[in-house]
Specification:
Blueprint lengths: L1 E6 L5 H14 L7 H19 L7 E8 L5 E6 L25 H9 L2 E5 L4 E6 L2
Antiparallel strand pairs: 1-2, 2-3, 3-5, 4-5
């Protein structure tokens, strides 16, 4: 449905999200879910660029968007970084973590998407949104 490799530059995030949502909207797979998909996708791309690829311009972030047979929207974001263990990311809603700079993006993604799965040692994020 939509696939694009982007450079690790935060300034391209808005443009690629716009293109992806336009294609998904034309195919009717974000009906009523566009805001959730957009927010999760923005966080996932920013995390891949800034934390995964360390904003190294030679590294790319791959975005693939699919509509599955059951009507679910599947968004896949892959980076070329070293990966990470999402289980060790601190809960940003706990009082002792409120002012820490990490964990908010993952929290937002998990809140707005129905299924969230990390693969390839944390270098691939698969997010599903049910219709």
């Amino acid at each position: 449905m939509f696939s694009e490799a982007i450079p690790s530059q935060i300034e391209v995030v808005e443009q690629v999200i716009g293109r992806a949502l336009r294609v998904m909207g034309e195919q009717g797979c974000v009906d009523g879910q566009a805001a959730a998909a957009e927010l999760a996708l923005r966080e996932a791309l920013a995390n891949a660029i800034l934390h995964g690829n360390k904003a190294e311009p030679k590294k790319r972030v791959q975005l693939d968007c699919y509509q599955e047979n059951d009507g679910c929207l599947l968004l896949v974001v892959q980076d070329e970084g070293q990966g990470f263990d999402p289980a060790v990311v601190r809960d940003p809603t706990r009082p002792e973590n409120i002012f820490l700079p990490a964990g908010r993006g993952i929290y937002i993604i998990r809140h707005f998407m129905d299924d969230v799965e990390y693969r390839k040692g944390g270098r691939e994020l698969r997010m599903r949104k049910k219709k």
